[in-house]
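Quick bug: Fe2OG dioxygenase domain-containing protein output formatted oddly.
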Amino acid sequence: KDGSSGYVGSSDLSASVSVPVIDLGLLPSSKDEQGKLKLALCSGGCFQAIGHGISNSFLNKVRGVAEQFFQLLQEEKQKYSRAGYDLVVKQVLDWNTRLFLRVFPEHQRKLNLWPENPDKIREVLHEYSIKLKQLVDLLFKAMAKSLALEENSFSDQFGDNPVMHVRFNFYPPFLLQDEQVEGLQFVKDEKWITVPVIPRVLVVNLGDQMQIMSNGIFKSPVHRVVTNTDKLRISVAMFNEVEPEKEIGPVEGLIDENRPRLYMLLSTMNAFRKAKYHLRK
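Here's what came back:
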């Protein structure tokens, strides 16, 4: 944050700060890897994940169906426009098209908004969402262990039916991580840090909900996608959210006389953002 707009400017860009790389395959049993995870989440809230068990061929398949979808005729994509496909033109610097779908809980999927073209996009999306959900569960447990908590301390707060959305983003050249094109940045120490492109990695950004549950120990980073003048960019993002209207708050084991409660119990996204804003003031 700065003293005026509240965020760092584009000139405050650091290319020298490395983005942590965490091996998810080591997290369940390695204290060292859990320590690296804790440091990454306490300092910046963003890291790159290796050892996730998803093959490069399948990741290429996910990118492939996303690219094929965005290459469809506009009239075909508009079939899914009510809550799925969307054209974003609110501001030129963030011009993109996107496909936004709920994937969990499964019984809440609106399949009429799931594209039927290209072939097998539904099948690929379903498989990808299952794989990502397994990784989310692994991360929740590892994050709890890194803070010496019971392993279900965070996952229990998300409820029996946590919500997961997938969003395919297509950024035209004038204007995720794509395997050839850098673009994602996050704020650390009041500077924008560019996330480098490493083949086969997944980029993890911590959300506001985890900052609240950790009583401010973990950080939810401000992030953005920057423009590229001559290359298109495609990203596939997953968002994991608390079961609707379920109250969350700091885990009791993270509250004591040395670190008092920073957040009240909250149950809506607006409340999350308001609490986060007051903490940062």
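Actually, after a second look the formatting is fine. The CA atoms of residues 1 and 8 lie 5 Å apart. Closing.
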